[in-house]
Amino acid sequence: MSALAEELTIRDVRPADLDAVAELERISFPIPWKREFFASEVGTAHRFNRVVRAPNGMLAGYVFCAFAAGEIHVNKIAVDPRWRRQGIAGLLMKEVLGLSARILAEEIFLEVRPSNLPARNFYTLLGFREVGRRPQYYADGEDALVMSLFLQPRRP
Ligand SMILES: CC(C)(COP(=O)(O)OP(=O)(O)OC[C@H]1O[C@@H](n2cnc3c(N)ncnc32)[C@H](O)[C@@H]1OP(=O)(O)O)[C@@H](O)C(=O)NCCC(=O)NCCS
Predict the structure, then answer these.
(1) Tally: H helices and E strands in the chain
(2) Per-residue pLDDT tens digits for 50-89
(3) CB under 6 Å to ligand 1: residues?
(4) Structural domain count, the chain
(5) Mean pLDDT, rounded, for 1-24
(6) Does residue 89 fall inside a structural domain?
(7) Ligand 1: distance of its center to the CA of 95 in Å?
(8) Residue 82's CB: how many other CB atoms inside 10 A?
(9) How many angstroms separate the alpha carbon of residue 102 from the centre of ligand 1?
């Protein structure tokens, strides 16, 4: 992974990324966020939005987070199917862990569909644990599992 990581560009999301982000979103989620929704997150306070670009410029993945009061909420993470199982999501979550260290966050949490076994497996391997369930959270009626990664307590 480290050799691959050296060839990748990881940086903040820019407006010029939004078409590719919306397209990857459309093929990655049953009920995708619209482009405007992503656009409203870019440049907004208390957001952490990163993309991974391949050496040829192709969008390999993205993560969109919001943070406040010691908590980071991962709103979205997706990797292009051609780049999956190569550690890209792991790299993106490493970025989020970097943020958590900088802001002394106590918790990273997210919602995931019970049916999304690849994502649940991925989060579990990172140390996330199921802490709750939101009934009919998704527009198609599926519940959401809430998964959390608890971090070091905040220093005073
Ligand atoms: C979930 C997702 C982000 C994972 O991205 P990825 O870059 O392929 O993940 P990584 O390569 O970093 O995977 C790290 C580990 O997670 C686990 N994992 C990832 N995908 C998996 C899958 N399809 N099945 C089982 N385990 C999986 C594996 O243990 C993997 O390590 P390994 O490949 O050495 O076995 C990607 O599948 C995706 O974009 N899915 C569609 C969007 C989505 O569901 N996002 C999450 C919404 S909550």
Answers:
(1) 5, 7
(2) 999 999 999 999 999 999 999 999 999 999 999 999 999 9
(3) 28, 77-79, 84-90, 110, 112, 116, 118-119, 121-122, 125
(4) 1
(5) 88
(6) yes
(7) 16
(8) 9
(9) 25
In a domain, 147, yes or no: no
CA-wise closest residue to 92 among 14, 154, 1: 1
The number of the ligand 1 atom at minimal distance from the alpha carbon of 85 is 11
Q: Classify burial at 135, counting beta carbons within 10 Å of its beta carbon; exposed 0-12, middle 13-18, buried 19 or more.
A: exposed
Nearest CA to ligand 1 atom 32: 85
Could you tell me the CATH number of the domain that includes residue 22?
Answer: 3.40.630.30
- Does the pTM surpass 0.85? The reply is yes
Residue showing tokens 């590719």: 20
Q: Residue 74 CA: which ligand 1 atom is closest?
A: 48
Phi/psi for 44 (5° steps) reads -80, 150
